[in-house]
Amino acid sequence: MPSFVTYPKINYTVIKKLGEGSYGDVSLVTLSDNQMYAMKRVKRTERVWYKDINMEYTIQRYLTEDGGHPNLTTIHKRSDLRDGALFFMDYVEGGCLFDRIPEYGFSLRTCHRLFQQLISGLSYMHENGVVHMDIKPENLLVSSGGTLKIADFGSASFFRDECDDEEMVKGHKGTRSYAAPEVLTEDRVEGPPADIWSSGIVLFFMATGNQPWTEANRLKDKEYEKWILAKWKKCQNGVELEPRIYDLIRRILRADFTERAKLEDIKSHEWFITFPEEDSDDSDDDDTDTESDATECSTVDDVKESESSSQNSKGKKRENKDYVEEKEEDSNVKKRKVEESDD
Questions:
Q1: Helices 191-208, 243-252: inter-axial angle, 10-degree rounding
Q2: Which of 20, 23, 147, 149 is paired with 83 by a 20 to 30 Å CA distance?
């Protein structure tokens, strides 16, 4: 007989909706302690089963126990519903990275600082045997103090078994425009190289304000074909990449995952380890360069005071909503499970 673990009802007050998608929605709520939380409602559907909900919760709890990592969001509570579950997580007042990227990209200094944090968070995940499989600006939050946090672990998987041996993970996950070529075509893939590819797309987007292509498929996307043939010169918005950042991105965005830069290669790259000089256009960046998280909202009063300053829409269209994710049961999760239930 399967064992059932249920999580009790939690009373909350909704302040406002933060976002929604095919998985459900995210709302800003307060609990009895008057603290602010981002409440993610995960719906059970034909493609999202309870085992998927349990996996997401298990992975995020596993990654954030014992203090977690500053570049990962923390999950605090869970409540089960008849048709899904509620996850209560850190509320990151600054919002998602996508909404903060300027039309022609960040300055090199801001790209450098945010990308270092992204790689730090990914390194922690991979060291602990977890791959994200849906790294993109919408799943990266930036606090009011400029700290980047990886969020939304709905596509994440363990890629090491109980003997610490690496295993392949399911392909066809994530978001098409950020997915590595092998993720789009293969049923099982090496997880870490797929995350690294997606991080390269994010770096490209931060540096230029444009996604490089809609799909890493030479037959379907001319921009990607130019990149593969080393004929790419500049973005459609006219932005060119600075030589050193271009060199790093080329090392990351290699179609053959065996030739793709690894995390240690990225960390030792000249652009990554050398802090860029201040650009003349640094003043055009938003408040991602602030030094402290002291202004991060945590109570109802805090968010009321800051809400008027957070209306900073860029007017960009989100063009990367073509999901390729298909869920299936992963039997590789053994000793790492924090809490689990079966439907």
A1: 150
A2: 149
**Whether the Cβ atoms of residue 187 and residue 181 lie closer than 8 Å to each other:** no
Q: Which two tokens stand for residue 9?
A: 């009802």
Neighbours of 88 (CB within 10 A): 20
- CB neighbours of residue 183 within 10 Å: 29
The boundaries of the domain holding residue 195 are 97-273
**């360069």: which residue's tokens?**
289
pLDDT at residue 334 is higher than 60: no
pLDDT in tens, 87-105: 999 999 999 999 999 999 9
With both helix axes pointing from N to C terminus, report the angle between 191-208 and 108-127 in degrees, rounded to the nearest 10. 170
**30: Cα within 13 Å, side-chain hemisphere:** 14
Same domain for 114 and 171: yes
The CA distance from 13 to 37, in Å, is: 10
10 Å Cβ neighbour count for 161? 16
66 is known as an active-site residue: no
- Given 229, 253, 273, the domain boundary residue is 273
CA gyration radius for the chain?
A: 20
Q: For residues 303 and 251, what is the distance between their CA atoms, to the nearest angstrom?
A: 42
Do residue 128 and residue 213 come from a single domain? yes
Residue in this structure with the two tokens 């271009």, named with its chain if needed? 246
Task: Report the pLDDT averaged over residues 318-338.
Answer: 43
- Report the CATH number at residue 247: 1.10.510.10
Query: Angle at Cα 74 formed by Cα 73 and Cα 78, nearest 5°?
Result: 125
- For the entire predicted model, the pTM comes to 0.83
- The CATH number given to whatever domain includes residue 55 is 3.30.200.20
> What is d(CA 61, CA 338) in angstroms, rounded to the nearest whole number?
7
Ligand-binding annotation for 334, yes or no, is no
Q: Are residues 127 and 268 in the same domain?
A: yes
In this predicted model, what pLDDT tens digit does every residue of 251-285 receive, in sequence order? 999 999 999 999 999 999 999 999 777 655 554 45
Residue where a domain terminates, one of 90, 117, 140 = 90
Catalytic: which of 90, 134, 195, 285?
A: 134
Is 283 domain-assigned?
Answer: no
294 or 52, which is more confident = 52
pLDDT of residue 162: 85
